[in-house]
Amino acid sequence: MKKCSFFRTASVVAAALAVASCGKTVRISGTVKDLGKGEVIVKLLDVNTYKVLDTLTSDASGRFSYRMEVEKGQPEFVYLYHNDTKIASMLLEKGDRVSVTADTLGNYEVSGSDESRRLAQVEKDFSDFSVKFADLAGKLDGLDPSTEEAAGIRRQMGRAYTDYYRSRVKFILENSHSLTSIPVLYQTIGGTLPVFGQATDAIHFKNISDSLSAVYPDSRYVRSLQAEAKRRTDLLSLSVRLENAPEMSYPDLELPDVNSTKVKLSEVDAKVILLHFWSAADAAQKMFNQDVLKPLYRDFHSRGLEIYQVALDTDKAMWARTVKDQGLEWINVCDGLGSASPAVLLYNLGKLPVSFVISGGELVDEPLSDAASLRKLLNSLL
């Protein structure tokens, strides 16, 4: 009896495991018209690249089938290709049983998945708009831009874009808990002009990101959207600050020093400020501190010079050690964002090191080619 009981228990466990495994399996069956016996390529969208999952061979009637695992709470964007043509798009959730009817030109219908049907509608709407917009652009090409005909076509293009943009805003608001909102946010006209390209669209990215993260916290698509939403909201915040900032001849900075105390550039009390951008990870730039900045500070600090040195490093501990080891007595700040620091954008930095001189609240328009020219300028100002 005990032996029978053991086998019954083992059978129940095995059956439970089989059901659990089966529950994660997505089944795709389909037919590609006019394909006959040919290849269907299955691709997975891996955030911003496509990964080939498998290459299927259809039967003589163009029928094929495929199975894949999808984790709970992590729907996947899966696409079918024939050669280089995308013939179907799907957003698949755990346990979906999907049927696809397609042709080799990219026309398709999908059943068995509400999210896939919604994604198909998203792609159709975008295709219809793109064709209309491209047609108008074609009519405009070759016309004299100053003519009334050209102006009329430009107005039509503007209205077409505005109407489509508003329809997409309506879509993402109505589908804020659907992953199909993500490709809508990233649509581009002609591959270069983003539909959601305005600075204030950061708000839409943030709202959809917050809504989806509550439903799909483990989705890599949502994590990527969160990063993009943060980037856009940071830029929007920076734009607003610049717009509302008091008029100065130089962009203001407020960055943390080695004690994590934020120091504002505009509040530095000095006749002349040497604003110096550098990287503590570069040995040559550390030597510049010893060979150039220290002698300048020694000679000019008592006459009214202060140095506001901005490190564009991501390793703040390394930067802080360098400041301490080199005995840099002036203002040293670093936000730890490296090349992503707002300071890079504000001062249009293309290389390091680079210096600016601020005198009397004004940015001095004087070329600084080397240590000698910097010393000469400071002598004339102080």
UniProtKB/TrEMBL annotation:
> What InterPro entries does its record include?
AhpC/TSA, DUF4369, Thioredoxin-like_sf, Thioredoxin_domain
A Pfam family matched in the record: AhpC-TSA
Q: Per its UniProt record, what PROSITE patterns does this chain match?
A: PROKAR_LIPOPROTEIN (PS51257), THIOREDOXIN_2 (PS51352)
Q: Which residues form the signal peptide?
A: 1-20
Q: Does the keyword field hold Hydrolase?
A: no
Limits of the Thioredoxin domain: 244-382
Keywords, A to Z, come to: Signal
Give the superkingdom in one word: Bacteria
Any GO MF annotation of the entry: oxidoreductase activity
Q: Which residues form a coiled coil?
A: none
Write out the transmembrane intervals.
none
Per its record, how is this protein called by name? DUF4369 domain-containing protein
Task: Please report the organism this UniProt entry assigns to the protein.
Answer: Candidatus Cryptobacteroides excrementipullorum
